Amino acid sequence: GAVVSQHPSWVICKSGTSVKIECRSLDFQATTMFWYRQFPKQSLMLMATSNEGSKATYEQGVEKDKFLINHASLTLSTLTVTSAHPEDSSFYICSARSLAGAISNEQFFGPGTRLTVL
Amino acid sequence: QKEVEQDPGPLSVPEGAIVSLNCTYSNSAFQYFMWYRQYSRKGPELLMYTYSSGNKEDGRFTAQVDKSSKYISLFIRDSQPSDSATYLCAMRWSQGGKLIFGQGTELSVKP
Question: Do B42 and A112 touch (CB under 8 A)?
Answer without folding.
Answer: yes
